[in-house]
Amino acid sequence: MAAAELLSDEGYRADGRRPTELRKVRARMGVFAQADGSAYIEQGNTKALAVVYGPHEMRGSRSKALPDRALVNCQYSVATFSTGERRRRPPHGDRRAAELGLRLKQLFEAAILTRLFPRSQIDIYVQILQSDGSDYCACVNAAALAVMDAGIPMRDFVCASSAGMADDTPLADLSGPEEAAGGPQLALALLPASGQIVLLRLGARLHQERLEAAMEAAGQACRALHAVLDRVVRERLCEVTALMGD
After folding, report:
1. Residue range of the domain that includes 80
2. CA distances from 233 to 107, 160, 179, 237 (A)
3. Alpha carbon 18 to chain centroid distance?
4. Cα–Cα distances in angstroms (integers) from residue 69 to residues 81, 155, 220, in the given order
C-alpha cells in the first residue's frame, strides 16, 4: 500500500477512519487475581496484556538493590500466535523484544515514584496477544493501567500512540497495513497533565515540518486515549470500592 493509497480522495483511511481518528479502544483492569496489578487492552485488532508484581524485596542477588529507589524490571514479548503466520522463537533470544523491554523500563522509571520504595523491585511484564499495528504503544498503555491497578504511585498517567505520514497528511494510531506500507513512523508517550514527553521513537528520517505535524497528531491521540483510559481507571476504582464495602 503506497503512501498515496493510505488516504482516499474523500480523506478516509482504508479502515474508514479520518487521519487523526483513533481505532476503537477497549480496556479492563484486574484481569489476573494472582498479580498485584494487571490490565488488558484492545486498540483496534491489536491486543496487549500487562501484569505487575511489586513493589517487593529484591529477587536474586541483593547487590542489585538500589539504596535510594526501586529497581524497575520490564519484559516485552510477542505471542507466537499473535500474527497470521506462526512466529518461531529466535534461538538466542529476541533482540528486538529485549530492546523494547529496555525502553519500557526507561519510560516507567521516569513515570513511577521509585524513590518511595528504596531497595525494592517492581516487575512489569507485557505481551502482545494479537499484532495489528502500534503494538509497542498498546503495551505502554496496558502497562500504565496495570501499574495503577497495583496501586503504585506515578507522577502522571502514561499514554502512548503512534503516527505516520500519508504525503503531507499526518495519520494517528497506525494499523498493521499502514505500518506495512513503509514510510516514516514515530511512537510518542507523554504524561498528559504536564505534557512531558517520556518516549519519542522515530523509525525513519523526516523533515522538521512533517515531524512537528506527526508529533502533534500523536500528541492529540495520546490525550484522546487518556480520556478513554481515565474512565477505565474510574470504573475500576468504583468496582474495588464496592467490593471493599461488601
Report:
1. 25-244
2. 20, 16, 30, 6
3. 22
4. 37, 15, 33
Q: What is the spatial distance between Cα 92 and Cα 78, in angstroms, rounded to a whole number?
A: 15
What does the alpha-carbon distance between residue 152 and residue 82 come to, in Å, rounded to a whole number?
Answer: 29
Tell me how many domains the chain contains. Answer: 1
Dihedral angle computed from the Cα positions of residues 18, 19, 20 and 25, in that order, rounded to the nearest 10 degrees: 60
CB 54 within 8 A of CB 125: no
> Domain for residue 14, yes or no?
no
Would you give the DSSP letter of residue 211?
H
DSSP assignment, residue 112?
B
- Chain segment 186-212, per-residue pLDDT in tens: 999 999 988 899 999 888 777 788 889
Does residue 8 sit within a domain? no
User: Chain-wide mean pLDDT for the chain?
Assistant: 90
Q: Is the pTM of this model over 0.85?
A: yes
Of 84, 83, 74, 25, residue with least CA distance to 50: 74
198: Cα within 13 Å, side-chain hemisphere: 29
